[in-house]
Amino acid sequence: MEITKLQLEKVQEHVRPYIHRTPVLKSRLLNEITGAELWFKCENFQKMGAFKMRGAANAILNLSEEKRNKGVVTHSSGNFAQALSLAAKSLKVPAYIVMPETAPEVKKAAVRTYGGQITECPATLKDREETASQIQQQTGATFIHPSNDLDVILGQGTAAMELLQDHPDLDYVITPVGGGGLIAGSALAVKYFSGECKCIGAEPLEADDAWRSLKSGKIETNESANTIADGLKTNLGDINFPIIRENVERIIRVSEDEIKSALRLIWERMKIIVEPSSAVALAAVIREKETFKNKKTGIIISGGNVDLSKLPF
Amino acid sequence: MEITKLQLEKVQEHVRPYIHRTPVLKSRLLNEITGAELWFKCENFQKMGAFKMRGAANAILNLSEEKRNKGVVTHSSGNFAQALSLAAKSLKVPAYIVMPETAPEVKKAAVRTYGGQITECPATLKDREETASQIQQQTGATFIHPSNDLDVILGQGTAAMELLQDHPDLDYVITPVGGGGLIAGSALAVKYFSGECKCIGAEPLEADDAWRSLKSGKIETNESANTIADGLKTNLGDINFPIIRENVERIIRVSEDEIKSALRLIWERMKIIVEPSSAVALAAVIREKETFKNKKTGIIISGGNVDLSKLPF
To answer: Which residues of chain A lie closer than 8 angstroms to B268, CB-CB?
Structure first.
């Protein structure tokens, strides 16, 4: 299915009342260090602390009145659980969240704060899918996938749209790559709302499924995923992969040390709190200095939800 | 000596090219938690990471050409050492910084980055003063005190001036109280650039010298100062104390637990990195909820230079 520019513009209009238009920051010190001209789109300041709010809002907005009344369901232990809960609350829709029993209490508490109704299950993908499926049957709720859903993808694309509206002359937009929703949406935004700008993905070497998927032409998985960027362990899906394959220039892989070092730079120099996943994009710029030298480069800071008790510093 | 409104306006004009006009942030979540309407003046985003840049720039700008050529000297192991170094560098003035041998290497490195010339000395106040005095004699450099200097005080006041220009209808401006430069400058800004706004100080119970000084009418010192807010251990001086006594409504004292809890709230909810000293002001608002209920309250976030390896979380 071909996405149109008009479609993206309508998505931006739809989600506008439910999200923050986040600020775009620059840092002279990071420009000096990287040699690039960087613009940071700060989705760590987004509602519930991550870009996922955009996709969740758009997905619910696209449901019929009847479906909305029956609610939405997802399985997630991360930002999407919070995002769907908060978006559903804003739209007065019930949200059923399947979480593994092993999920940290702080994450369950956050979902509850946003009004999500939690069902716990054993910590396997099979159990999570089955539990979500049972809830669907019992309640008639609609299942919303965190990244492999076209409405979610288009919602996530609005961050890059805003960035390009603020800075139409970017040479590159870089995003971290996890389940593929953010990079796919961003790549569509770059395609329709820029001139010569290219969309590049950034991925941990320890979870480089997207890099391998682009190489092999089919969706690859991670055998293990021993990365600090815990939001980037998931695989691409059949809806976002074709969009990524067609519209993403390439993917740059970075080591764990490079991620930690970039994370510390952002915290120390910019004085903002970002997730390790967000630092992966800056790490890519530092790794490939020559590529980005003097280039206007937009970086999507994906989120800022970190456990302050467990920092890598 | 009576300060005039015009004088403060001129200071703002003078320092403008050497500082950032920092953003003023709000947080719906913190408003909900406190019941107040809070506006955070983010000096953690200031050049070198703290409001001290303002006073340092103003102090150097007020020196004659001849004095500037001979340089400036201070003794400090904290933000003012960095501020004076960077301000001096911007104005092409030599900066001599006396630091205790025991100062962390990371702080010495920061001063060097900004071009300050470090002289190390034993870690007593007497040694620091003597060493600075020797440098004065050898070089003809002018000694600039970090907080008890009128030009420094007026420079620090420009943060509250900007805040009141952005939000003229504030009921309160709260700042942390350390050596007294920030609170004295802020109180003058409130006096001249607001209607009914009041300036309130916030201080750790563990270093409540300013609270005791206002009570006794003379400058008190701290016997010990066992506080996480390491920027607030110093005492008031004979230049800032009269300004504080005349223009500060009162000082609210907070416990170490209250400071840590407020610090965590700012980090987790606002996703910005601030020093423990900055959290003291929010802690005061939380401690005296009834005072600030529904009140438009400006908080000066003093800085964001923290050692990420030594967090209290």
So the answer is: 273, 308
Task: State which H helix or E strand residue A73 sits in.
Answer: strand A72-75
Angle at A218 between CA A216 and CA A222, to 5 degrees: 85
Dihedral through CA A183, CA A185, CA A187, CA A188, nearest 10? 170
State the residue for tokens 């020559």.
A290
Q: What ranges make up the beta strands (E) of chain B?
A: 24-25, 37-42, 72-75, 95-100, 117-121, 142-143, 172-176, 198-204, 250-254, 296-301
In the predicted structure, residue B1 carries a pLDDT above the cut 70: no
pLDDT in tens, A55-74: 999 999 999 999 999 999 99
Contact A155, A185 (CB under 8 A): yes
Name which of A271, A275, A306 to mutate to probe chain B: the one with the most chain B Cβ atoms within 10 A of its Cβ: A271
Please state, in angstroms and rounded to a whole number, the distance separating the CA atoms of residues B138 and B96: 11
* Domains of chain B, start order: 5-50+150-310 (3.40.50.1100), 53-143 (3.40.50.1100)
SS3 A42: strand
pTM to 2 decimal places: 0.94
State yes or no: is B52 an active-site residue: yes
Sign of the CA dihedral with B46 first, then A34, B310, and A280 last: positive
Alpha-carbon dihedral of residues B138, B141, B142, B145, nearest 10 degrees? -80
Closest CA to B121 of B156, B75, B172, B167: B75
Token pair in block for residue A28 = 């002279």
Give the C-alpha separation, B185 to B159, whole Å: 9
Q: What is the largest CA-CA distance in chain A?
A: 57
> pLDDT digits over B144-201, tens only?
999 999 999 999 999 999 999 999 999 999 999 999 999 999 999 999 999 999 999 9
To the nearest whole Å, the CA of B308 is away from the closest chain A CA by 6
Alpha-carbon Rg for chain A, nearest whole angstrom, is 18
The tokens describing A123, both together, are 């910590």
* Size of chain A, expressed as the number of residues it contains: 313
Interface of A with B (CB under 8 A): 23, 44-45, 49, 264, 267-268, 271-274, 304, 308-309, 311, 313
Give the DSSP letter string of B84-105.
HHHHHHHTT--EEEEEETTS-H
Measured at the CA of B309, the angle between CA B119 and CA B252, to 5 degrees, comes to: 85
- Identify which of B49, B271, B309 has the shortest CB distance to residue A45: B271
